[in-house]
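In response to the reviewer comment on reproducibility (Comment 2.3), we provide here a single inverse folding case reported in full, input and output, so that an independent group could reproduce the run without further information from us. The structure tokens appear first.
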């Protein structure tokens, strides 16, 4: 995930499991010193190929490309 704070020297892009995304966004302003949606946000899922762009004025675009990773599951998990 990339947003405006990803370009701060001490931040960079954020790698977040989909199941943790809600909590990540809720705690973002405390952890990173800025708002999550200060400007545009780009979310990329290598496992599904989805790219989601959320523009700060409310526009949302979702496109699907090719997956470049496979989801790793624990041994015995279904």
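Designed residues, in position order:
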């Amino acid at each position: 995930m990339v947003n405006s704070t990803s370009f701060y020297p001490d931040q960079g892009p954020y790698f977040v499991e989909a199941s943790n995304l809600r909590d990540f966004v809720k705690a973002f302003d405390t952890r990173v010193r800025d708002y999550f949606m200060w400007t545009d946000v780009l979310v990329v899922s290598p496992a599904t190929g989805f790219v989601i762009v959320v523009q700060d004025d409310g526009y949302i675009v979702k496109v699907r490309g090719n997956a470049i990773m496979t989801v790793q599951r624990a041994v015995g998990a279904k």
